[in-house]
Here is the input.
Amino acid sequence: MTALVGKPATDWEPVIGLEIHVQLKTRTKMFCRCETSFGLEPNVRTCPTCLAHPGTLPVANGQAIEWTIKFGLAVGCRIADRALFARKNYFYQDLPKGYQISQYEAPLCVGGRLVVPGPDGEREIRLNRAHLEEDAAKTIHVGGVEGRIVGAEHSLVDFNRGGTPLMEIVTEPDIHSAEEAKRFLQLLRQTVVELGISDAEMEKGTLRCDANISIRPAGSSELRTRCELKNMNSFNFIGRGIDAEIARQIAVYESGGEISQDTYDFDAASGTLTVHRTKEEAEDYRYFPEPDLVPYEPRSELIERLEAELPELPGVRLARIAPVVGYETALDLVTSARDALYTKLIAVGAEPKAAANVLMNQLAAAGVDPEAVNPDELAKLIERRSEIPGAVFNEGVAASGTDSFAAIDFISQSSISDTSELEPLIDRILAANPGQVEQYRGGKQGLLGFFVGQVMKESGGKANAKVVSELVRAKLND
Ligand SMILES: [Zn+2]
Here is the structure.
């Protein structure tokens, strides 16, 4: 950020709010019975309702409503007694009705918060709301630059995605750095995944995030003109995009300019921002209550049932683990669903950092399902780690997901510390390297490592290095 040269970065405080779209993994669409399948030929998952033929009527998807309420309960939202659907009017080819059914006044979930543990302690990010809406169809612009409408010869519309249920989550402007935005989003993602309501994969577009960004002099509480950043399809791009937008705004203010309320796309390849379109105001959409859908009044039994189904949230587990193994490792454990196994390993006496390390490295590399692992046996293997050859340890971790895995048997069968097996191997290595043997005996003691290394290599990494080292030394000193 060259604009900051000579000035401390603390002169400006970023103010960031996020709008997140989570595609719910219901079997059918939001207002019709079309299946929500993906990767199919264009326009095979359509019906008169989601193509907006005259005379068709929407019927709200009960599962999508339940799941949105479930999310709301998980993050402490107030659930509406009477929620309304609304028409959001705009004209574009991805919206055959000419309006999107969304929620405006009286959304399903209001308020709430996500407590985000970080390296410097916890931060509470307040939510404004979570509501339900239908997704638009997918437009493909042909002949232009990078699939954009500018310069395109024509546009194709695929209505398979049109009408898919989306939960939109809006935060308050409580986020103050790109890093914090990323942490919030990672935790939010993990929360919806564990609630079982969405796959929430940014790369596949089932989790999408727009950021509203402004800056203000540090210490002030004013809210200046904000810009919206769209189309960021990975956690990494979100961090970089927000940082780029903050730097742009600082440069504008510091050169005496003003910020206008624009929407930008972040191009990750070039790291640049391009103007997307001038931001509409809410009144441009002429929201009004959807006359074809009755207001939704959740029953108290439903709320009680959903509340009882809530699992312990990832943020709570993260906060518990982070002080022991560090924030980054804890986040890795929680977001890879390995933290339950970590907790079991600790419970049977494994050293926390060693356990976390093995789970995030060897176990992850071997692709072992953490739920299949017997924690007692893996803990025994971890405890013996320093005594057994590296290759044997790695193989053991890889085998720890099988039913019959027993650490002690595995170690004794797989690692070679039997002298009668190792001696011929050592003799062979010494015979093959007469020059080095002579040098060693002439005083070049550092060559011991060379011989041990050769023996280890010959054994496929399975020889016990400590035993080999003792045997080689004894032979050379004969
Ligand atoms: Zn349909």
Q: What stands out?
A: The chain has a mean pLDDT of 90. Residues 336-414 form one domain. The chain has three domains: 2-306, 336-414, 419-476.
